[in-house]
Design goal:
By secondary structure, the protein is an alpha+beta fold. It has a single domain, classed as Cytidine Deaminase, domain 2, CATH 3.40.140.10. A hairpin with a 2-residue loop joins strand 4 and strand 5. The longest helix has 14 residues. The chain starts with 10 loop residues before the first strand and ends in a 17-residue tail after the last strand. The chain binds zinc ion.
Length: 160
């Protein structure tokens, strides 16, 4: 048996001042989206902003439900909307932000496993990497592809 090592690169910044203007604006749009979250149960608002190759920005926020599995995370709300409205236009970058009890969290917010699976499907579909900015007020982490968030990805095409 031999060892297989996976190397993942994550860019880390202590504040948005270290980022280009375009990324700062996308984070701002993601924070605006947190205000539209429906999170009476968790009180944890997640806001996402996605920018497409044509410059269109799409926002998403978490939408909870009294029957818990019926709700949906902000990431999937935004990605599914983008893919349904602009199926032929690639997503360039996605910014994810969060609030706890109405206050910006310091730490970066990571997408859940189910969202990572949906995000990587979009990336495979468009055949171009999607950058992901996971932002907190004092901790911003960026990956250049969803592959960094979901290594050893399942792809049915690999078995055909
Ligand atoms: Zn999720």
């Amino acid at each position: 048996m031999k060892e297989k090592k996976l190397i993942i690169t994550v860019w880390v910044a202590g504040s948005d001042k270290e980022l280009p203007e375009e990324d700062r604006q996308l984070i701002e749009e993601a924070y605006k989206a947190t205000k539209q979250a429906y999170s009476p149960y968790s009180k944890f608002n997640v806001g996402v902003a996605v920018v497409l190759e044509n410059g269109v920005v799409i926002q998403g926020s978490n939408q909870e439900n009294t029957a818990f599995p019926s709700g949906l995370c902000a990431e999937r709300v935004a990605i599914f909307y983008a893919n349904s409205q602009y199926p032929d236009i690639a997503i360039k970058t996605m910014a994810i932000t969060s609030l706890s009890n109405g206050k910006q969290n310091n730490k970066a917010v990571y997408p859940c496993g189910a969202c990572r699976q949906s995000m990587i499907q979009s990336e495979m579909r468009q055949q171009k990497p999607i950058r992901v900015i996971m932002a907190g007020s004092e901790d911003i982490q960026i990956v250049d592809s969803i592959k960094s968030l979901l290594p050893l990805t399942f792809d049915l095409e690999d078995y055909r």
